[in-house]
Design brief:
Blueprint (H helix, E strand, L loop, with lengths): L1 E7 L8 E7 L6 E11 L1 H7 L19 E8 L11 E4 L2 E3 L5 H4 L10 E2 L20 E5 L4 E2 L6 H4 L5 H11 L7 E5 L3 H12 L3 E6 L5 H7 L3 E4 L3 H5 L5 E6 L8 H4 L2 E9 L11 H5 L4 E4 L5 H14 L5 E5 L3 H9 L6 E5 L7
Helix pairs in contact: 4-5, 4-10
The structure holds NADP nicotinamide-adenine-dinucleotide phosphate and zinc ion (ZN).
Length: 353
């Protein structure tokens, strides 16, 4: 075991602050990674503030962070596919049971015995729960470590590990969306990646936003049109016309307004994870034979496919890079939907924390 610098919160109302955490010495299957950048996902904020207490209560202290890019420092004796110096990524998962039907199908994100990157029981007993990427280093089973295309901007790659795969996977699952009319609801970390992927897949992309100030950015990011969802007239113009809608909203909202945007057999997929249950109108689904689904990140094979796709198409997140000392101010801005469009922590800053 060794100690690493990290940022942690000790309660739902405490700020994140500098701390020392234990990390295990690499087992034969492990990769030790020195972290270069870690994205700030809204899930970090939900967890730090215990907003998911009814589903997955937070164990304190918590070290969040699951959009990790770093460099391999050491590998275990049974790790053939990585070597010191390699650029790698780690997302929301650091382990699973490797044997259930979902794992066998490459759907580790659906494994009932998965280990999340933070706030999951630590199988190795190094600590009560796993500690995430707001840290100078992390030790991860090689199956959950990904190859990063080296020519991409690394700060912009970090958010691909969660925001990227979470939007890529449901669009891929929906099938060939070339020429289809696709809606992306909420222009935040996930939403702006959804726009980039939908565009790259050849879809007609419409962004729904509550922020008039994001309209120009939505078009720059690749949207064909932008709808201010608080304007009933703008909403009416698109009613009943979408093939597929990705809902990334992090807070309570009227999902029926977006279900009603779908055409016949259209699907709305929820990736946003608001604290409170959403009220769904049966009639909005019945008329039009529409469906409502959920999706969570993606499996490891698909995450590598997404990273390779981003390498080929030069896709990265639009990031505001911050030192870790500014993380609490960044959370305040994230809570107000005021980020363009993902914060990425430059982990070199932790050396002076
Ligand atoms: P984010 O950057 O805060 O973006 C969320 C966007 O939702 C905001 O930028 C805002 O967009 C819109 N929004 C926020 N509050 C709203 C409200 N009250 N009414 C309407 N729209 C509102 O968050 P994120 O990191 O993209 O994460 C989004 C959600 O996905 C979070 O709940 C997160 O936990 C969840 N998540 C799920 C997965 C998964 O695997 N399913 C993975 C990662 C994250 P506008 O300003 O454009 O309106
Ligand atoms: Zn996330």
């Amino acid at each position: 075991m060794f100690m690493a610098k990290a940022y942690s919160a000790v309660s739902a109302t405490s700020p994140l602050a500098s701390a020392q955490i234990p990390r295990r010495d690499p087992t034969p299957r492990d990769v030790r990674i020195e972290i270069l950048y870690c994205g700030i996902c809204h899930s970090d904020l939900h967890a730090v503030r215990d907003e998911w207490r009814n589903v997955m209560p937070t164990v304190y202290p918590i070290v969040p962070g699951h959009e990790i890019v770093g460099r391999v420092a050491r590998v275990g004796s049974a790790v053939p596919q990585f070597k010191p110096g390699d650029l790698v990524g780690v997302g929301c998962l650091v382990d699973s049971d490797h044997s259930c039907p979902n794992c066998r199908d490459g759907l580790e994100q659906l494994c009932p015995n998965q280990t999340l990157t933070f706030n999951s029981p630590d199988k190795h007993k190094t600590a009560p729960v796993t500690y995430g990427g707001y840290s100078e280093s992390i030790v991860v089973d090689e199956h959950f470590v990904l190859h990063v295309p080296p020519h991409l901007d690394l700060a912009g790659v970090a958010p691909l590990l969660c925001a990227g795969i979470t939007t890529y996977s449901p669009m891929r699952r929906w099938g060939d969306i070339q020429g289809k009319k696709i809606g992306v609801v909420g222009l935040g970390g996930l939403g702006h990646m959804g726009v980039k992927f939908a565009r790259a897949f050849g879809a007609q992309v419409v962004v729904f936003t509550t922020s008039p100030g994001k309209k120009a950015d939505a078009l720059r990011l690749g949207a064909d049109a932008v709808v201010l969802s608080t304007n009933p007239e703008e909403m009416r113009q698109h009613a009943g016309s979408f093939d597929f809608i990705l809902d990334t909203i992090a807070a309570d909202h009227d999902i029926n307004a977006f279900i009603n945007m779908l055409g016949r057999d259209g699907n709305i997929t929820l990736v946003g994870a608001p604290e409170k249950p959403l009220a769904v109108s049966a009639f909005a689904l019945l008329f039009g034979r529409r469906s409502l689904s959920g999706s969570i990140i993606g499996g490891l094979t698909e995450t590598q496919e997404m990273l390779d796709f981003c390498g080929t198409h030069n896709i990265t997140a639009d990031v505001e890079v911050i030192p870790i000392q500014e993380v609490n101010a960044a959370y305040e801005r994230l809570a107000k939907s005021d980020v363009k469009y993902r914060f990425a922590i430059d982990m070199a800053s932790i050396k002076s924390a």
